[in-house]
Amino acid sequence: MFKGVYTALITPFNKDGSIDVEALKDLVEFQIEEGISGLVPVGTTGESPTVSHEENVKVVQIVVEQAKKRVPVIAGTGSNCTSEAIVMTKAAFQIGADATLQVAPYYNKPSAEGFYRHFTTIADEGGLPLMVYNIPGRTGKNIDNDTMLRLSAHPKIVAVKEASGDMAQVMDLCRRKPKDFDVLSGDDNLGLPIIALGGVGIVSVASNAIPRQMEQLVRLCLENKYDEARELHYRLLPFFKAIFIETNPIPIKYVMHLLGRCTETYRLPLCPMDEGKKEQVKKVMKDLGMLR
Asked: What CA–CA distance (Å, rounded) separates 167 from 153?
């Protein structure tokens, strides 16, 4: 169902902290013009922990209306409270989103059975195809492959954004999964190896700034042109590292600010990087020809 690059969109803010609607619309247009496969508003990169539920739904609506079905929109409507995730997912369904991204419940650290019941309940009641988001570094607990395979049997649970960083786990999942269940990398720098193992794309942070290059990388991988893909991967690797020099989405939002696509505004507890890290990011951008 999902193949290619899906941009985990930043949420642009005005200097007063409110959502910058025009900047968000412009970003959607830029992504589509550059050939992106799809858009993922209000994930971690969209600062989901500090937007209200009402704002979450508003951002999804802006993106859906601006995209006008030209590309699929996978709405970030996850929560560590199952009932809240269902409410937001139903709202995204009514707005016209194409699917939902559901993060593993964070902080409360459910059991394997708790994970299973959480995701299947949202899939049963939310109305949208569901992409599971496994990111134990943020949520505190990994979704093991036996549980993921149980989830993949549900007709509405169609994909995973895999960001465990455990390549042995990814390899095992790609070997055992059903053919109609998609594995996408949740890490830009692991996109090439995960696709080589059987994945089909990336939910990308880097593509906020370089969507065309990320699409090229994934296309080369999917066409088994790994010599060319490897060359492009290593050319972009310093950028992949630079945008995680500090907690995501701080560096990518700084990049987008330098590119004139948003203000450098975050919501606490996120805040700007120190000047040393900013200089490191700018150097990488200059080396790649992104800045003069």
From this structure: 23
Burial of 27: CB neighbours in 10 Å, binned 0-12, 13-18, 19+: buried
> From edge to edge, which strands make up the β-sheet containing 74-76?
38-40, 4-8, 201-204, 182-185, 157-162, 130-134, 99-103, 74-76
Q: Which helix (H) or strand (E) holds 7?
A: strand 4-8
Is residue 145 within a helix (H) or strand (E), and if so which, with residue range?
helix 145-152
Across 214-224, average pLDDT: 98
How does pLDDT run across 91-105, given as a tens digit for each residue? 999 999 999 999 999
Given the residues 58, 90, 141, 161, select the one marked as catalytic: 161
In 3-state terms, what secondary structure has residue 186? coil
**Look-up of token digits 């995960």:** 194
Question: Tokens representing 61?
Answer: 């609506």
- Cα(200)–Cα(2) distance, rounded to whole angstroms? 7
Given the residues 58, 90, 116, 133, select the one marked as catalytic: 133
Q: What is the value of pTM for the model shown?
A: 0.96
161 is catalytic: yes
CA distance 29 to 67: 7
